[in-house]
Every structure is written in C-alpha cells, then in structure tokens.
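Extended Data, panel c. Modelled sequence:
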Amino acid sequence: MRMPVSFLALYIQLLPIILDILQVYAWIVILYCLLSMAIGYQVLGPLTRLGIALYNVLGWLVEPALRPIQALLPNTGAFDFSPVILLLVVDMVIPWLLRVGLQALYAS
C-alpha cells in the first residue's frame, strides 16, 4: 500500500525538528547529571539554592524516562548507569528508528 505523498512530505519536514528536540533533551540529561554531582559534592557554594531548583525542574523532565531503565538495571551502588543508557537511546536508537522509518516510507 502506497503512503500518501502529503504524509511523506510531513514526515520529511518534521524529522529534523524531532532530531533537534532529541538533542536538546540529551543536553538536559547531561545537565541533570552534572547538577546531581555538583549538589552531591557541594561545589555550588552560594548558588546551591538555584542549583537545587534547577535540578528539581530538570528532574521533572528526566526522571520519568530514567525510572524504567533503573528498574531494569541491577543496583550498582553509588554510580547510576541509567543516564548513560538513556543518552544512548536518545542519541542513537531513536534517530536510527526515525531514519529507518523514513527509508521504509520511501520504499513503499
């Protein structure tokens, strides 16, 4: 079954936007991890309240994606590998799936 041309054109136009949003989300995850370490090691000094507030906002965005990954991974003590897995998924797996979907649309 052939896809309508308008759907394919829409997909092609939205793909770069979706990939850009994924890149922004990856940077949010990285900033969340860095703030977590900075708060844990108490290196923020007078900016601690601002850092904690920003950490809470970023946690609201990142934690829902981290929870299922944390449930699958074994407890490793002080280091949490779930942000690494999330970054791999956001930076590699999802863009690859989007591009494979585009190739499948072209093929059909």
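The chain has one domain: 5-107. This feature is highlighted in the accompanying rendering.
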